[in-house]
Design goal:
Mean pLDDT: 93
Number of helices: 21
Strand order of the largest sheet: 8-7-6-9-10-12-11-13
Helix content: 25-40%
Oligomer: single chain
Number of strands: 19
């Protein structure tokens, strides 16, 4: 494990003030570098950014120092930040007339325009000067696509308590600090907790309770309103890299995390995870995931991607930099991955999101689906609305559904599909342009029903009017339509409304 000592947060507020004064923010970086160089950094290509920072201004100095991780002249650093304090506190080290960064400090824009900073090991922020590619066991990563995905899907309602399990450099704890009265962050790697402390301090966020240990062991029997985790979910032979390898067989770590979460949620609380899971020969992957859901919890599980075992092994071999080792060592490690997958009868690996909500329902809603299509982040409100709709549908039989009032959600368009010039379309598609961006096929009755839903009339009265127009028995239409209404509500095309509030113009 890396033994590099880490900076002290004691004067983080002064350092933060200097970074902000120099414009060392996400917006400031974009303005100086320009969009092409900024985007190239995300691909670990540094030449455009080096060219854009050839000046000696404070912002150029800080970008070279902390993002590109190049030495800068002491006099330039002195003009950009309190260099003597930064050296004394361990943020920098000096060699002759130059100073070097000892950690990666990366500007990160919060959801409401906050200027935050994520602190991680050198060369280990995605898009950093060296990319990840680290083979050190205890390395602590910075911001990556998985981190921002989890932050985007997390429900952001005010809560009393939040737990960030496997905090890493503290990104999820930082987000949680904005809407949770009390934040607890845990990690099996003590260095990760030190980085979380630095991230929170340099971002001007409240301190969190920091606990060392695996899974829920550090928190005992404590319960929370929100649990989030971007765990070491990689299914690998062994546990070589703490930041990514679960250390249990197959997908057991993710399964254990999900199954134990129910005991640590307060009523109405959410647990949200990123995870990998095995696709095993002779087994339905959806059934595998349904079996993980703890008693008393609703669940929404979305598979975003599937890779065959060769693609998966190659991805994580490159992640660790094994492709740059001797060919025989690379081949041996590749063989180890395939051997383990063969023993477990694993044919592919899925990646996605798992959200639990402690509903206590006798008949919980467990939705497991594959959705590889583009979505619009952030999705926290979409996730919350999904579970609210499940509550509504669970509490309304067909008669209550027909008595209900509904409204088409915003940003839904109707597309008619058919042969050009035909009198009637072959079918009609409703398509969302927000959130999950779903599309669903409906018949002409369903399209007509959805099109006039503005909350003013009950579903039953709308169907009676449609029956009159199409000359169909209204009783028959009422009998066969509730299933279609449930689908439109379930998928978020229609939302239940209070007619009194509609009449009031709300």
């Amino acid at each position: 494990m890396s033994t590099t000592s880490l900076p002290s947060p004691r004067r983080a507020a002064e350092l933060r003030a200097a970074l902000l004064a120099a414009g060392f923010t996400a917006d400031g970086m974009l303005d100086l570098l320009g969009a092409p160089a900024y985007a190239a950094l995300a691909r670990s290509e540094t030449v455009p950014a080096l060219r854009a920072t050839r000046g000696d201004g404070p912002l150029s100095t800080l970008i070279r120092l902390f993002l590109l991780q190049r030495p800068v002249p002491y006099v330039h650093a002195e003009a950009a930040l309190p260099v003597a304090d930064a050296l004394a506190d361990g943020w920098l080290r000096r060699e002759g007339d130059e100073v070097h960064a000892r950690v990666d400090v990366r500007p990160y824009g919060g959801p409401d325009g906050e200027d935050w900073f994520i602190v991680s090991d050198l060369g280990c922020a995605v898009g950093g000067a060296g990319g990840i590619g680290s083979r050190e066991e205890g390395v602590v990563l910075g911001v990556g696509g998985a981190s921002t995905t989890l932050a985007g899907i997390t429900v952001r309602t005010p809560v009393g308590s939040a737990l960030d399990l496997g905090t890493g450099s503290g990104i999820q704890a930082l987000h949680a600090s904005q809407h949770a009265t009390r934040v607890t962050a845990t990690d099996v790697n003590p260095r990760a907790l030190d980085f979380t402390r630095l991230t929170l301090a340099l971002s001007g966020a409240p301190e969190a309770e920091l606990l060392t240990g695996s899974l829920f062991e550090p928190v005992g029997e404590a319960t929370y309103d929100l649990i989030v985790s971007n765990p070491p979910f990689v299914i690998s032979p062994g546990a070589r890299l703490t930041y990514r390898d679960g250390g249990m067989g197959g997908d057991d770590l993710c399964r254990t995390l999900v199954q134990q979460a129910g005991d640590h949620l307060n009523p109405g609380g959410y647990a949200q995870f990123l995870a990998n899971w095995q696709h095993v020969e002779g087994e339905d992957w959806k059934d595998r995931l349904r079996s993980w859901v703890p008693r008393g919890c609703d669940a929404w599980i979305v598979q975003r991607e599937v890779q065959d075992v060769t693609q998966y092994a190659e991805l994580w071999l490159r992640d660790a930099g094994d492709h740059r080792t001797a060919p025989e060592e690379y081949a041996r490690r590749y063989e180890d991955w395939l051997e383990e997958f063969e023993e477990q009868r694993t044919k592919a690996v899925g990646f996605g999101w798992i959200t639990l909500r402690k509903s206590g329902a006798e008949y919980p809603s467990i939705v497991v689906e594959e959705w590889p299509h583009p979505v619009e982040q952030p999705l926290g409100d979409t996730v919350r609305a999904h579970f609210e709709r499940q509550d509504y549908l669970r509490g309304h039989d067909d008669a209550a559904l027909l008595a209900g009032h509904f409204r088409m959600v915003a940003e839904v368009v109707q597309e008619q599909v058919g042969v050009p010039g035909a009198e009637d379309p072959e079918h009609v598609v409703l398509r969302q342009h927000r959130g999950m961006r779903r599309a669903t096929k409906v018949d002409t009755v369903g399209a007509g029903f959805a099109g006039v839903c503005d909350g003013s009339l009950s579903a039953g009265r709308i169907l009676d009017a449609i029956a009159s127009l199409v000359e169909e028995d209204p009783v028959v239409l009422r009998d066969r339509t509730p299933e279609a209404i449930r689908l439109l509500v379930d998928q978020g095309f229609l939302e239940p409304v209070d007619p009194a509030r509609v009449r009031a113009g709300e």
